[in-house]
Amino acid sequence: MATSGTYTFNLDLGDIVEESFERAGLEAKSGYDYRTARRSLDLLFLEWQNRGLNLWTIQEGTQAITSGTARYTFDGDVLDIVEAFIRTDAGDTSKQTDQMLTRISVSQFAHLTNKLSSSKPLQYWLEKDPAAISMNLWPVPDSTATYTLVYYYLQRVEDTGSPATNNVDIPARYLPCMVAGLAYQISLKKPESADRIPMLKQVYEEQWSLAADADRDKSSLFFTPGGYRTV
Q1: Contact yes or no for 53/82 (Cβ under 8 A)
Q2: Calpha distance 41→12 (Å, rounded)
Q3: Are 185 and 201 in contact (CB under 8 A)?
Q4: Can you tell me the distance from the alpha carbon of 179 to that of 15, in angstroms, rounded to the nearest whole number?
Q5: With DSSP H G I counted as helix, E B as strand and the rest as coil, what are the percentages for the chain, rounded to 5?
Q6: Which parts of the chain have pLDDT scores under 70?
Q7: Strands 123-128 and 133-138, how do they pair?
Q8: CA–CA distance from 6 to each of 10, 19, 226 (Å)?
Q9: How far apart are CA 69 and CA 136, in angstroms?
Q10: Domain boundaries, the chain
Q11: Closest by CA position to 152, among listed 85, 97, 223, 227
Q12: pLDDT at 213
């Protein structure tokens, strides 16, 4: 049996829009159809990131720590911090050590007695402004060692962009979910597709469940008194 031997199937924006319109029982005929679909697609990506942890968007970042400076602002593509730790003597094979940072709420930070206490940071709280998020370390970093902040963060999905030949910033396994979601969004805008809304909504939610389940962390989970750990 002859097979292609390739694993490169993908859809560009033009293909995505065409497929989604067809599922809605329509045909993309104008530049406005393309523009409104692209806008809905960008909104769809933001919706996905409100639904929970998408493992394929997790990236690693580092930030040099300055003695006496507790607040650090991240780039606009950083949506949230998953894990963070302080690395001491980064790059030194005999001395480098990592210490996890504990995330606390703004209320817990507010109740700290001495917010100017200086030492190796142990905790942080995130300040989420509309443009970017900032990490506030406590205690305030001292100068007794060289510290580096290492963190894993949720990265915002890239915008679709204008050219119809663009690919989208998602894994190929999410293509069925994306097309189903866009078809549903298009049906909400087009009165002639109103009768398909319930069906398209159901298909979209089913595809999301399949994609999200495939994207979950498959490491073993062990519950112990007082917390949990993964291996």
Answers
A1: yes
A2: 13
A3: no
A4: 10
A5: 35, 25, 40
A6: 218-224, 226-231
A7: antiparallel
A8: 12, 22, 49
A9: 9
A10: 13-53+158-214, 55-156
A11: 85
A12: 87
Euclidean distance between the first and final Cα of the chain, in Å? Answer: 41
Summarised one tens digit per residue, pLDDT across range 90-125 is 888 888 999 999 999 999 999 999 999 999 999 999
Torsion of CA 22, 156, 99, 229, to 10 degrees: -20
C-alpha 74/C-alpha 49 separation (Å) is 18
pTM of the model: 0.84
- Provide the phi-psi class of 68: left if phi over 0, else alpha when psi is between -120 and 50, else beta: left
For 126, the 3-state DSSP assignment is strand
Closest CA to 127 of 141, 140, 139, 110: 110
| Rounded CA separation 29/106 (Å) | 51
Which residues is 103 bridged to in the sheet? Answer: 124
Tokens read off for 27: 């045909």
Q: What is the pLDDT of residue 220?
A: 65
Q: Can you tell me the distance from the alpha carbon of 22 to that of 158, in angstroms, rounded to the nearest whole number?
A: 25
Both tokens of 182, joined, read 């866009």
Angstrom distance (rounded) from CA 43 to CA 230: 33
